[in-house]
Hints:
alpha+beta, ten-stranded mixed sheet, nine-stranded mixed sheet, 8 helices, 23 strands, transmembrane helix, Glycosyltransferase family 92 protein, Glyco_transf_92, glycosyltransferase activity, membrane
Amino acid sequence: MFRCPLRIGFIYTGWMELLKHLKKTYVLLFITALFLCLVLTLKMPSTYKSNPKPSGPPSACSMRISEQTITPLNNTKHLLVSAYMDQRVKDFDIRIIGIFRRDSIQPLHCFFCCAGYLSETTPATILQHPDNFGFPFVTTDVMCQIPQNCSATHVTLLTTPDKQSPSNHPWLPIRNKDTVGQKEENMQFDFTICISNLFGDYNNVLQFAQTLEMYKLLGVNRVVIYNTSCGPELDRLLQSYSDEGFVEMVPWPIDKHLNPSRGWLHSEHGGDVHYFGQLTTLNECIYRSMERSRYVLLNDIDEILMPYQHKDLMSLMNTLRNQHPNTGVFLIENHTYPKKLFNQSKSGPLPQWNGVPGFDIMVHIYREEPNRNIYHPHKLIVQPRAVQQTSVHDVLKMSGAKFKVPPDVCRIIHSPISTPTNPPLDQLHVDTRLWDFKDKLLPNVIKVLQRAELLRSETQN
């Protein structure tokens, strides 16, 4: 009867020995784990131990990078617009586009940010454009050479060769770094239109919509518009186009810096600068488009560069390039279409655009023959990399040749709000080329006006 207590005692003794053994094992495991953690911690890279401080000093040119399209230059009466890599001129790397006061030009020095550190200064070469039309301010190129071993990202200009505090300088980002060696067929766009400038609360919505939709049908991919001011309805339309990526709006607050003229000649119109800085914006747009567009059209919104023997602009340019392979600038003759209503009994694409500001270019079918015995203006189709400086009606500096396109091949359909002359109908020529596109053009215009909520309900059916 004593066998059961003995067995219980034996079992109890065995469990105690087992627990002692397990305690030793757990202690050994714990010590081993602690040792391994210590070793791993000592070998762990510093980036995992804490958030490291950035290596090296912060960028020296990051204090005041200009995000404006017009930037006053310190200690001068000049304005800076943009900076571009341009190695087409010997001994220079950078072209800064600006608006300089002609009677106050002094020596300047180029100052670079080289991927985080400041360079030595290099002397600047100042090139005034020859077309100033008598105005005090003129479009100006400042040419700079990048110092050796400098990977330049930003540039500014100094009035003395001594470097000053970088916080006082407006740094301009350097664009077009990939232009050299880029192939034409790899461009993002085939055609870009440069339109300058919108001012005076311009609000011709209907003509704007018709013209932009016409250019879409002709193969234009991007329209760049420099905007000082426009009317509320046009602003809504342009915002709609901007949202879809067809229009690129560039703010152009020239009136905040100068007294811009509304005319082209200083002796007649006064002011500081020609047509709200039109010459500057045309040049800036060429460089803005240089590494992304095969062709650039320089014209106004009331002008359509219309091919007459081709279905679109690319077909036209393929023919012209094959016939004139060394040509970089094509001049298109201007033809004015006065605002004369044709007989309403004639059949024609005339929907009622109720409530839409502006006028209908589809009624402009009477073409005025230009007087070629006097100066007759042209507008331009250019290969941007062939152009260094441009004016409104001709290129000032370029490589390659120019070609005046015959008007039966391509001409400008110019539909201005008003014309200086009012010739009788028997001196005008009927031209309904725009009507060839009416089946696609008119529905597209209605669609874009509806999208911008600018068309009254009774015209939407």
